[in-house]
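Blackboard transcription, Thursday session:
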Amino acid sequence: MNTILTIESLKKTYGKAPSQTTALDGVSFKVEEGEFLGIMGSSGSGKSTLLNCIATVISPDSGRIILRDSCITDMKGNELAGYRGNEIGYLFQNFELIDNLTGRENILLPLALHEVSDSESEERLEKLAEYLEVADILDQFPSQMSGGEKQRIAAARALVMNPEIVLADEPTGALDSKNAKALLEKLTGLNAEEKTTILMVTHDPAAASYCSRILFIQDGALVHELRRDVPAESRKAFYERILQVVAQMGGGSSHVL
Amino acid sequence: MFSDLVARNSRRSRRENGLFFASLLVSIVSFYMLLSLSGQDVMRFLQKMESGAVTRLLALIPVMYVWTLAILFFLIYFAERFQLERRRHEFGVYRVLGMKKKDLFRMLMAEDLRTSGLALLIGLPLALLLAELVSLLTVRLTGIGILGHQISFSLPAVLFTAVGFLGIKLLASLILSGKIVREEIGSLLSEVPEGTKKQLPGPVYALSLVVGIVLLAVAYYFAISGEAWMYISTMALVLASGTAGTVLLFFGLRFFIDKLARASYKKNQLQVFNFRQVEETVIHRSGTLAICSLLILAALCCFGAGLGIIAERKAETHALDYTFDIYGETSEETKQMLEETRTKLKKGGLDSLFADLFVVRTGYVRTTEDWDNAVRMEKLQEALGQQPDSDDKKIVQNRLEYANFPYLIAQDGYNHVLRNAGLPELSLGSKEVAVYMDPEYASPGVVALLEKLLPENRELTIDGISYLFTDQVQTVSMVTDRSLTLSFALILPDEAFDFFTKGREDLYMSGVLSEEAKEGKSLMQAIMETNEKLDALGLSYESYLQNMGRELFFTVAASYLTIYLAIIFLVVANTIIGVQFLMTQQKAQRRYRTLVSLGAGYETLCRAAGNQINWFFGLPIAVAAISSVFGLRSLFSGILSSSLTGRISEMMWIGGAVVALLVVVELIYMLAVKRASNRYLLGLMAPKREE
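(Written on the board underneath:)
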């Protein structure tokens, strides 16, 4: 399998000495093509900083992020803009749909931004809309959609450019369990059928159980890794293992002292 | 600590919102310009000539002042609301940290006072300077030369400016700060999305659009057909249907923009987003946009009318400086008076002041009692009747109907007038007469029509004796007094004049100042000095200046006020549109952040915002510009004399000036708003820390 994303000793601190907070303390890992990778950690563990660094929303103090063959930590301005939404798709916890654009307009937005030809985009839109079951609501405005529908529209928008990797930041955080399950199943399906690489940040073990591999982060460093033995291991069994690790981390030695 | 905070906040407000501060400066300048009107050179000059009229005009100023107060209050209120809206979160934080409502209110008022004070500090000197410039410029434009230019500084004007400005500013702040302070902390801290407005079904908007266009078309039709000016009721109807049409048009416009947005999926970049943003404003603020559009229309009409009034003034030839009143009950008495005036002038040593002092003689046909047939010109009248119908034809027919007992003018005196105007003199044959029409009545169309007919229809009889018309119509005023006008008269050779008038004549002694009298002075100065000398001799006279004064008064008063209003309207409308855009942009902050995360670069966002700004300004301006074409035409035909409407080049010039004003003002505003928007977008590009 090819490596799609390489993170090399990423460091990021906030504030100035002496009141410095280390958010990332030399994080390194690789994401393989077609992988559904989860990153779990409690609040303040540094998982959002990590995601924001990969998303190019913030820049790390040191270390490198390499997507395919290009080092995105060295990119600036327009180069970065071309990379966002194009090479990387985003799925946000609160959807971030633009509320005065229809579903269709929201999905087509990245295509317009990156100047993709019409026929290509139409085809892609049709396919995604059908798969994500949003074909009927394409001409509605976000205010007329349910939370689940909004997130599926957002998923279509994240996928429409056929990105190298999809970054999902707590994508089920604002959904009820039924809608959350539906969305995760769709994502898993895309991952399996289309070989879409997904990197999902979550603190929900149930959501994480859909992943094929999970990295646990604590105090800015990776502390554990779980791999699901697909297809031998059931999702339920994987979920149990995740719960164990979470419990260990929560009640681990670092908190007992 | 508190005063530091106030100072810092006030400084930041000015830096972040230049548009707001600029609108404050504009308010101050416009107050002062209005209030210092009486100190302007032209007004001081006019006060000497036409004190009654000027006093009446100056009595109007308080009314204008209050009117301006109201309009500028609207402007300041709007701009300040925007200013405070963008700081809501900050106020929420102050309150969370324990600032009392009372203290927040105090802080806001203190900030406001500081900003206002600074605006006055910068605005007042600016206003003084501008008033001086305008004073000098109007003097130059009106051609009255500089009569000991006086600084137009006026203390009462400064005081009233400060009081008026602080008054409306304080009132706006009181209302707005009061509102902010009363709000719950939670609502201050949370982002307030634009409330979703109830949407009506699509056909309602389409219908509104159609009805709006129909109403506008009705207003346009009545405006240019001239029917608007017939009765007050038709004028009211035109204004009402125009206003309602504009409001409905903007209300229905979302139908059109929605179609545009849906049609532009396939276009590049952020076109759909732009149209949706514009659509949202059209939905939420169609009323404000309509008002802005109407304000711009009012500005364009005022400006055009002001220029039209100025252009109308330039039409006449200046030939004479003075005309003395010589009027006796009988011819003998009149002749005696003429002699007396001449002697007085000579005795007073004033005759040397005049380069030319001459008498224009006028009278009636006295050789017959049959006044209805004293003069006959059937052939000309017939030829006129065969001409295609036109306004000019009606005017000439009307003049000729009363031409059977016309005024007669002696050639010799009139030639003096022509010589002084630098025109070729008349040399009439013994059986020739020339047509004279006062410049007031002689529009280019009328003159052209007569001069077309005259060569073919020369024959006329005066008391049964045959004469022939010359080809040209004479239109140089024969006296300085413009209130004395002849709509149709005949210029006769002196012998014929003497024969027909039988010595019963009216005399107008006119004069032109000599080079000596004018040496080293402006004409205005020379005439004013001569006036003093003539007054001392107890002579009664009309001077070019008095007449010019009368006319100038109307020109200056009307054009000054109309142009003043035009600028205020334009500033208010544009500031509101600009502020409206920035406000909408700020409320759409989240959307812009999403766009950034989807890969929109800074340049892309700036271009998108730039496009939106073009639309925001373009919509109301386009509607106003189209309406103004009809509005101006209607205004010109309604308030200006027919002599101007015939002068196509002048009209083009005015139209061009109106367009130029609009383009310059809009470019400045759009540039300012684009800069503010770009600055704001740059702030959004900075990453938001989420952990």
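Lecturer's comment: Chain A is about 35% helix and 25% strand.
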